[in-house]
Amino acid sequence: MLVTGHASVEASPIELSARPSCLRREPLSFYRHSSEAMATSRLSLGLFLLYSISTGIATGCVVKIRNRCPFSVTACSQTQQQDIVQYDLRAGASQTVDLGATCIWTAAVVYASVTGKCAVTGIPNAATDRNLANLAEFTIGSNGLDFYDLSNVNAYTIGMTISPSSESCKSVGCTIDDISSFCQPNNVLLTHLSGSQSCINTDGTAGIGPTDSTKLWKSACYDAYSYNFDDATSTFVCPTGTDYEVAFCP
């Protein structure tokens, strides 16, 4: 919000014509009122920013990561430009990622850690368990469009949804209720020290598809990637400016 001040400047026609505008001196009251207006503007802007921070108002597009599970989830996010960020979300908690006024989030992924630790200490951009989890993937702000998808190409470990704020854009989800029964050869079932399980998509990880195995993945979660080139039914588009919610255990 900008606040501007208006000052009344009295000068006779002779004074204005005799002195070029670039050299004309204004009355002291003009500078006093202008200074007060500038101070008011700065104060108003400062109060607005403070209010925005304290109330959680976003300055642009946002992606909200929400844990709907009855247990805590270690959520991880990563983009091309940044290191992995970890959010420890208790049951029912959420974390808002503010993308700012530019609304750009390139090659971003969100996933649930199966070890409780998103990154390897001292190794930038190295994930401990990204390849053991299903992913929510985004490219936001690409020539006015957002691209988003769910991917089981590497593995599956937890139910997820992506819900755009725009009703004209499709919400997508993938939940496999009984991972142990689903994860049959040639896939691999892993049980981690945390107690969580991953079903490794063997053909998807190997870059093979479509196969009988990847077709089972597609049958379980039609809207999610089952192998690398499963684009036709797995990539979704929305106009830039849309907000998104990624939810675990929808």
UniProtKB/TrEMBL annotation:
Keywords: Disulfide bond. Disulfide bonds join 69-249, 169-238, 174-221. The keyword Disulfide bond applies. It comes from the Eukaryota. This is Thaumatin-like protein. The keyword Disulfide bond applies. InterPro entries: Osmotin/thaumatin-like_sf, Thaumatin.
